[in-house]
Amino acid sequence: MTDAAISRSSAVPQAAAIYLAIVQFFFAIGWSVYVIFLPKLLEQAGLPKTIAIWILAADQVAFMLSDLIIGVWIDRVRTTLRRLGPTIAALTAISCLAFLLMPQVVRLGKGTAEVALIVALLVWTTTSSALRVPPLVILGNHTAKPRLPLVLALNLSGLALGGAISPYLGVVLRDMDPRLPFAISSIVLLATTAGLVWVERALARSPDAPSSDTPTAPVHGSGGAMLFFIAMAIAALGFQLHFFVNSAPNYLRFAKPGDLDMLMPVFWIGFNIGMFPAGSFTKRFGTLHVMALAAVLGVVGIAGSILATNLSMLIAAQFIAGCAWGAVFVSAFSAASSLGSPGRVGIAMAILWAVLALATLGRMMMVGGGVTRMPDMGAVIAWGPAVAWLFGGLTLAQAARVLRARA
To answer: Model pTM?
Structure first.
């Protein structure tokens, strides 16, 4: 193959990843809109808004189950060489319809509104998994392994950008009638997802498939894979506590509440930047080793956030922590793609998403149960993320040794 042909074949997965990043961005925006307005929707339906945290926790359980089901389905579909794009688009259409109806059904009247809202929530969460596992599997199946970390970083940057602007959305949208943002989010996401059919066809025609590389030995089900997922569960819980529980109080030591919408995105800026060099390092040192080192670097960022004596030090520490989690996050999906090869990439990606949802569920249970507000738990909540990332990094290093020995 000529250099020009190689360049063109490499550009196809990268262009597809950028397109999918746009889809993921609008998916993240939709989730932010949902979280912002959920208490108001519950109240309008006649339900206490205090149960919002438990609804969000139930969403994570639905995500976990749906991710695993879709992961198994994807692996079976791939054996028949069927396309995933049309099914993803169809499931997303159902998801967008349920999302669009949420602010409408709360106006149906007492009794009917509660049931209709819960049904819409359940349909939305279960079908939303179509935009979690499948896009990453599509990229993994049609991208050569050496280029996969870069392609995944491009794709996941959409989630990072969505997370970065979520504080602004909270400020801009909180007093708005929810029907308009729900409608716009649904229509835009549905319109962008429709292009997945053509994205998958373009990738299928690209010669940049991983089959052109040396086949990797299947390691799914091994002790090393189990250690990997355990490490990610622990590290992800540390991330959840650090960002969603500790970051705002840390900033409020030096800043005013009105400044948070400008300061909270610092972590996500670091996250987005940290994802891209991770691919270069994984080629040289190995995916799990890079994850282990990044997790340890994250401990420095978390400790710096706690010990910072001024706002500048805190911003720098948050940026470091974001870079570290970005490197861990993108490398984790690259590792899952390898762990699932050949033939079980779908379930490997699904388990990783389910692990991340489990960590989110853990944080929500702690917040909803008041654990994070207990005075006796202050030191545990503050330093727990650093301990989690350190332990997660050490576990990842051990997983790398086990998998290398197995190979």
So the answer is: 0.89
Residue 108 amino acid letter: L
The listed CATH number (2.40.10.10, 2.40.50.140, 1.20.1250.20, 1.10.260.100) that belongs to domain 1-209: 1.20.1250.20
The span from the CA of 335 to the CA of 285, in Å, is: 13
d(CA 16, CA 14): 5
Which residues are within 8 A (CB) of 188 and not within 5 positions of it... i.e. 6 or more apart?
A: 26
Q: Name the superfamily (CATH) of residues 215-407.
A: MFS general substrate transporter like domains (1.20.1250.20)
Residue 363 is predicted with a pLDDT of: 96
To which H or E segment does residue 94 belong? helix 85-105
Burial class (CB in 10 A: 0-12, 13-18, 19+), 325: buried
Domain ranges in the chain?
Answer: 1-209, 215-407
- Residues belonging to the chain: 407
SS3 18: helix
142 contacts 208 by C-beta, under 8 angstroms: yes
pLDDT tens readout for residues 222-267: 788 899 999 999 999 999 999 999 999 999 999 999 899 889 999 9
> In angstroms, rounded to a whole number, what is the distance separating the alpha carbons of residues 393 and 387?
10
pLDDT tens per residue across span 59-108: 999 999 999 988 888 888 766 556 777 888 888 889 999 999 999 888 88
